[in-house]
Every structure is written in C-alpha cells, then in structure tokens.
Write a structure and sequence with these properties.
This protein is mostly helical and 506 residues long. Helices cover 66% and strands 4% of the residues. The chain has a three-stranded mixed sheet with strand order 1-2-3. Helix 7 packs antiparallel against helix 8 and helix 19 packs antiparallel against helix 20. It is elongated and about 95 Å long.
Length: 506
C-alpha cells in the first residue's frame, strides 16, 4: 500500500513554499536526522520523498546548467535513496499484509516473518548510509546551486518544454504498457509519471493547478499494482514453498485487488476522456511548442554565454531580417519550414562555445550544438543546420574544404549561406550605437536595398556592415545596399525578449 506524499498533499500553504532547492535541500537534512533517530516507515518515506524531489530538480535544471555540483548532489542523493529502498519496500509489503484479510492465515504469517527478517538486514544498511551521509557537503552544494536555480522563473517556457518532453516519455511508456500488459511496463510508466508530476509541482504552479491531484492518483494506482506484483513474487519465492491450494487462494485475492486498480487506471487514461490527452492540451503545441524549444535552447546557452543579452538582441534582429527577406521572396524553396526558428536558435547559441575559451569559439559552439538532444518535432538535419549556421556567424565563409559544410546536401548548403548571411548581418547591426527599430528590404534593378531604421549611416558601423553583408550577397546572388531608414520609425518590440535577469557563464 503506497503511502501518500504528505509533503506534496498539504494544500494550505502556497505552492511556492514547497518547491525548489531552497525548500527541499534543508528538508533532506531534517528528515535524515529524524530517520537516524527512528527508522519508522513514515520517517523513511519522508526522507525518500525529499531526496526524490531534489533529484527531480537536478534532472530538470542540470540539462541547462553545467555546474559540476549538480552531479555531486545527484550521486549523493541516489546513493542514500538506494540504501533506503529495500527498507521502504519491506515497510510497504508489511502494510499490505496488515490490510489484506487473507494475510491472517498461515501463509500470511510466514510471509510477514520472512519480510521482517529482510527488513532487519536492510535496516542496518540504511543506518550505515545515514551515518556516512556528508551533511556539510550537502549544505555547500545547496549554497552554490540554490541561487543558480533562481534563474528559472515559475511557469517559464523552458520548463514547460521540459514537462512536454517528460509527458512524451511517460505517454509512450503508458501506451506500451497498455499493449504489452507487462508488469515492468506498468512500473516504468509509474516512474515516468512521477517525474512529470514532480516537474509540474516544482516549477509549474499554473499547470499543476489545472492538473490538480490527477497525476498523483494515477501514480498511486500504478504503485499499488507494483506492490501487489512484488508481494506475489515474495510469496512464490517463500521457503518452505507454499502449498498449491494456498497459492491459488492468494493468487485469486492478489489478482482481484490488482484488476480493480488496473480497471480504474484504464478508465482514467484510455478513450476520449483520457487524462493523458487532457494534460497534453495544457502543454505547448504548434507555434507555442517552437517558442518553447527556443526558450529551452536559450536557457541552455545562458549558462555558457558571457553576454547573453547581446545574443537575445541578435536573435531578434535575425528574425526581423528573415521576415524582411521572406516578404521579398528570398526564402522560397527553403529546405525546412522551421528556418526562422533555426536562425534565431543559432543566434542564441552562437557564442556558447566561449565556455571552452574565446579562441575559435565558433567551432566549439558547433561541436556543443551537435551534441544537444534533438528538440521535439525537429529532424536531425535541422539540428545540424542550426549548428552549421552558428559555426559560420564569424570568421571564414563556408567553403567546400570545410567538412561540416561540404557534407551537407546542396539544398542545405544553400540554406546555410542564407541563414548564416542573415546571422552575420544581424551581428553587425547589433553593434549600432542606436537601436535598430525596423528592417525593410526592397528589390531594385541594382540588387537589394536594406533600409535599417535606427542606422545613421556613419562609421565605423558602415564598414562593418559592408563586410558582414558579403555572405548574404552570395546567398541572394544580388548586390546589397544598406541605407538608413526614415527617422521616427516606431520602436520594434524585441521578439522573445524576456524580463531583465542575471546572466552567468559557468
């Protein structure tokens, strides 16, 4: 019988008081002290819950933040959690034996004695782990990581994207479990669902308010199904062996309890009113999903780029330039309809290689981007295109002797020229002494005229633009003239610009 997560069930306090490292890290120390004094089922459960919450936060944030203390905290938490696992499993099975009427027979007594003996062994293992847990290191990791976790605002789009990825994983596991009816598949679905639920409770209060206790209810049902499977395994392995008649009676009772819970789970998760579908509707989709991908990539880059605000401005200018060229017909036949998001993403990540040093950082950025997980909905070729575009935001132009460029299909090479040309020009415009408010492209007999509202036409920016436009001229096969726009053009709202926040580079 799965005990409810008491810390997560208290609804009187605001959600923000029970989320984040600032709450859960000290709680681990508090619950460790209580467990060291008394290894009661409640104390063991509460400590494991606090550890799992910290691991959930680490899992969500370490994908963005490369600070080494995340891995250290994860190793320590998983080690202590594992040492308490056997003890907790025994407590759960003993609770089931108290609950089941059939457990009062001879077989039930034998099971109880066997599990109690196992518990004594696991108890000593837990005591040793609690005593060896380094509280001072835990506090030092908390002091370093808690401020870094504050970079992420509640309900931020990058965290909604994390939840979307976790929903995708959990839903796929659910579908496989429904097809296979495998015990392991149900267990893995529960684990994935718990990860999704913790992410919502830790970071997404608005989303959690919509979901309520639905995810926890399903998690408990799957947990109890798993408990019953483990209990049956213990009975089968019992020595001396249980008689065939007694085993048949126990199997009937356990299957009855299991089927009742599985029927309830199925009724909630299958058909037109499936909770899985209802949850998916609350997560990003279509354009919002693409923006969430950009936010996720931006959060990753923020911890690797010294001047990330600069990259945000470059990304906004890149989008403006792309839109202006698109309106003039220069993006027709593009190999992907995601080109606008790709050039924005390349702008956000182009300086991420500086985490490895300034020299040749554009090549380092390329390598780092290539190692990123494929964003949801993207094709591998699109991630490769983004990496190549970021690589050519500075220095040498794309050439046949460059492996990363020559290995692309011809259509992707042409896309690289256009998007990297846009990115180079956007980087030059960002150096303007005045804000570039608006960009307009006109097709003339002589070529292209780019009017930049906010550009004064003076040096040294004029020379920088003359150099930066060369790759775009190659891509468009036209000469480009850049002129100041009319005075008084309305100030452009930077697309995707977020509230001013601290920036850091690990």
């Amino acid at each position: 019988m799965r005990r409810k997560d008491k810390a997560g069930d208290q609804k009187a306090a605001p959600a923000s008081t029970k989320a984040g490292l600032a709450y859960w890290v000290p709680r681990v120390l508090k619950q460790r002290k209580k467990a060291a004094q008394d290894l009661s089922p409640d104390n063991v459960h509460d400590l494991r819950t606090a550890l799992r919450r910290c691991l959930s936060i680490e899992d969500a944030l370490s994908r963005f933040d490369p600070h080494p203390d995340w891995k250290k905290m994860k190793r320590a938490a998983k080690k202590l959690l594992k040492s308490l696992g056997g003890l907790r499993d025994c407590d759960v099975l003993l609770e089931w034996l108290e609950k089941l009427e059939i457990a009062r027979d001879k077989t039930g007594l034998a099971l109880r004695n066997s599990i109690t003996a196992e518990r004594d062994t696991f108890k000593q293992e837990a005591i040793d782990a609690l005593n060896s847990f380094d509280q001072q290191k835990w506090k030092s990791w908390a002091a370093e990581l808690t401020p870094r976790s504050d970079f992420f605002l509640p309900d931020g789009p990058e965290l909604r994207y994390v939840a979307l990825e976790q929903w995708q994983e959990a839903y796929q596991r659910h579908r496989f479990a429904m097809r296979s009816r495998s015990k392991i598949a149900y267990h893995r679905t529960r684990v994935a669902l718990k990860k999704l639920r913790y992410t919502a409770e830790n970071f997404l209060p608005l989303l959690q308010a919509k979901w309520g206790g639905q995810a926890k209810e399903l998690q408990n049902l799957l947990g109890e199904i798993h408990d019953l499977d483990v209990l049956w395994g213990k009975l089968v392995a019992l020595k001396p062996a249980v008689s065939r008649e007694a085993k048949a009676v126990w199997k009937s009772v356990i299957n009855s309890e299991r089927k009742r819970r599985l029927k309830k789970y199925t009724s909630e998760t299958c058909g037109k009113n499936s909770l899985w579908c209802a949850w998916r509707e609350t997560l990003p989709s279509d354009v919002d999903q693409e923006k969430a991908v950009l936010a996720e990539l931006a959060a990753w880059s923020r911890f690797r780029t010294p001047e990330f605000v600069h990259q945000q401005r470059v990304a906004a200018l890149s989008a403006d330039l792309f839109d202006a060229l698109d309106a003039a017909g220069f993006t027709v036949g593009m190999v992907t309809n995601r080109a606008r998001y790709i050039v924005q993403a390349a702008a956000l990540l182009e300086d991420s290689g500086r985490v490895e040093g300034d020299r040749r950082h554009h090549k380092s950025s390329y390598r780092l981007i290539r190692k990123l997980p494929l964003p949801l909905g993207w094709k591998p070729a699109e991630l490769q295109l983004m990496a190549v575009v970021a690589r050519y935001h500075r220095k040498a132009l794309p050439q046949a002797k460059h492996k990363e460029f020559s290995g692309l299909p011809s259509a992707f090479q042409q896309a690289t020229l256009l998007l990297a040309g846009i990115l180079r020009l956007a980087n030059a415009f960002e150096q303007a002494p005045n804000v570039i408010r608006k960009i307009h492209v006109d097709v003339t007999l002589e070529g292209l005229m780019i009017r930049a509202y906010g550009f004064d036409g003076e040096e040294p920016l004029l020379s920088k633009l003359a150099t930066a436009k060369h790759l775009l001229e190659i891509a468009c096969r036209r000469a480009i003239v850049i002129t100041p726009g009319a005075a008084g053009a309305p100030l452009r709202a930077l697309e995707g610009k977020q509230p001013r926040e601290k920036t850091t580079a690990a």
